[in-house]
Amino acid sequence: MAEDLDTYTHLPLTIDPQSKSISLLPASSSGLSSVQTRALESELAALNALHRSLHSLDAPHLVPPPPIPVNPKRSAQVSKLRDSGNAEYKKQKYSEAAKFYTLGIQMALARPLWEPSQLVREEVHSLFSNRAQAHMWMQEWPEAAVDAEASVEAKRVGNAKAWFRRGKSLLEMGRLEEAREWVGRALEVEGEEKELAELGREIEKRLESKNAGVGAE
After folding, report:
1. Least crowded by CB within 10 Å, which of 8, 112, 143, 150?
2. CB half-sphere exposure, 91, CA atoms < 13 A
3. Measured between alpha carbons, how far is 49 from 212 in angstroms, rounded to an integer?
C-alpha cells in the first residue's frame, strides 16, 4: 500500500483550447501498455462527455426558472382583513378599522422569506396608508405620520395619498418646515397632484403667518 501511494506516474495530457476536451498525447502511448492506454482513453472520453453535458446547462433557456411559491390562503386572509377594515372605516368606527389594518399588516409581514418581497410591499403600502387615514380621523397625528411614511417606504411612486397623509399630519402637529420639505419631495415624485399642491400652498400660508407673527414681536 505504501509503495502505491509513493508512486507518481506522469501522463502527458493536452487540452483543446476551444472545446476544452482533454486527450492523451500520441507520444505518451509508448510509456503505457495497450490495455492501460485504452483504459485511460475511455476515462478521458467519459470525462469529456460529462463536461459537455454540464456546459450545455449554461444556456438559461434550457433550464426553467424555479417557481415562486405564494401561499394563496395568506393572500386571501390579508385581503379579507383589509376589506374588514374598510367596512369598519365606512361605519366611522376608526379604532376598529385600525385594528383590522394592523392584523393585515402583521399577516403580510409574516410571509416566509422565499415569497416575493414585492408582493409584501404591495400589500402593506395600502394597509399602512389606510391605517394612517384612520388615525387622522381620530386626530392621532404622530401615529398617522409614521404609518403614512411606512406606506411611502413600501411604495414611493403612485402613492400620492400616503404622501399627502404624512404631510397633513406634520402640518397638524405644527412641524411646518418638515411638512414643507415632505410635500416638496412628494410633488417631485408624484407630479403636480391636486391635493398635494393644495396642501403645499396651505403650508406656505401657515409659514408666512408664523413668520409675520415672529416679525411683529
Report:
1. 8
2. 11
3. 85
* Contact between 28 and 11 (Cβ < 8 Å): yes
Nearest to 160 by CA among 198, 104, 123, 134: 198
Q: Which of 131, 145, 137 has the alpha carbon at shortest distance from 174?
A: 145
Q: Report if pTM > 0.85.
A: no
pLDDT digits (tens, 9 = 90+) for 92-151: 999 999 999 999 999 999 998 888 889 999 999 999 999 999 999 999 999 999 999 999
H-assigned helices in the chain: 2-6, 34-55, 72-90, 94-109, 117-137, 141-154, 160-172, 176-190, 194-216
Which of 142, 143, 206 lies closest to 180, judged by CA? 206
39-61 pLDDT, tens per residue? 878 888 888 888 777 766 655 55
CB atoms within 10 A of CB 134: 25
**Spatial CA neighbour of 153 closest among 120, 200, 177:** 120
- Please give the single-letter amino acid code of residue 136: M
Q: What is the dihedral of CA 208, 214, 215, 217, to 10 degrees?
A: 150
> What single-letter DSSP state applies at residue 65?
P
Nearest to 146 by CA among 117, 175, 118: 175
